[in-house]
Amino acid sequence: MIDGIAVIEIAGTLVHRGAWIGQSSGLTSYEGIAAQLQAALADPGIRGIALDIDSFGGEVAGAFDLADRIRAARAQKPVHAFVAEHALSAGYVLASQADRITLPRTGAVGSIGVVALHTDMSGALDQKGIAVALIHAGARKVDANPYQPLPEGVRDQMQRELEVTRFLFAETVAAGRGDRLSHAAALATEAAVFRGADAIAAGLADDLADPVTAFRGFAAAPQSSSPTSRKGSQMSTTPSQTTETGAASGTTAPPAAAAPPGPAPATPQTPAAATPPTGDATAASRESIRAEAAEVAQVCAQAARLGVTIDAADAVTRGLKPEALRAKVLADLAARSDAAGIIATAPAAAAAKDSPIIAAARKAASDAKR
């Protein structure tokens, strides 16, 4: 804990299980992150949670469940993500659930996609004169085994599972980002990586600042601060001094004192005369209907790729909303594949070291004692 803020490090490759895996291994477990999150929420001395993220991604299994827990935590305490320097793929799933995301000018976020690997060793084994016989019960028991070429039907099934997972990935990101990044916009990134100002413009992040400076602004926020609005984005190189909006610190000004409880006096209201819609309002309404119909069609097209058939014309006629259709698609999809990993290509693991945020906080504490 630093100045009343719980700092949760999310670094290296992310894996499902292993609560005691440390950064020295190059791995961080969702299980361990969840335990730290729960402890921070239960501690009355902690008034905010900082996610210190530097990860290229990791496993699918456990990522979305942890994302849901981080998003739910915002209702109790402000949660901010500080990217130093990467929050990609599974790392971005977690970052996207924070109230705000801050990254440096060279920071990278995104990679909203999924990848699976199949290695065909049959040619190499033939050259060495090695024959592998797989004795199995169940026609699909040895699907995607490395000793045989990948059959087209198995490849198609794997592709479908990846598309299902990417759909859920984008749905989770959209739930965390609110109106700053829609489900359709998340899919439209096609798993691209966005850096610095481009990430702000695309709606994948909120603030452009040195993570250490931004963290100090977050830690200096008033005790009674609450999470910021999910609307709008900010781009700055230094934390804002404006306390009304709390753009840099990610908190709003303390709420005004509430009036004593009691029944409010009734005030008669004169009914306002109905005003017929103007031409501009009618045009705007028509444009809104067109946009919603287009979004419905897009959802139906994506569903078709996933093997779920929805009649777009019927959905529009019945007035079904895009959100309801997405929920239906997710309900109809098969269970996601734990064999797939959401990960961007990562460099070789480096030796463990403190994150910039923690290193700066420790130095400040040491200087204060002198």
From TrEMBL:
Residues 220-289 are annotated as: Disordered. It comes from the Bacteria. Keywords: Hydrolase, Protease, Serine protease. Residues 73-210 form the Peptidase S49 domain. Residues 222-241 have a biased composition (Polar residues). GO terms for molecular function: serine-type peptidase activity. The keyword Protease applies. Gene3D superfamilies: 2-enoyl-CoA Hydratase, Chain A, domain 1, 6.20.330.10. One of its GO terms (biological process) is proteolysis. Residues 257-268 have a biased composition (Pro residues). Residues 242-256, 269-286 have a biased composition (Low complexity). Belongs to the peptidase S49 family. PANTHER family: PEPTIDASE S49 DOMAIN-CONTAINING PROTEIN, PROTEASE 4. This is S49 family peptidase.
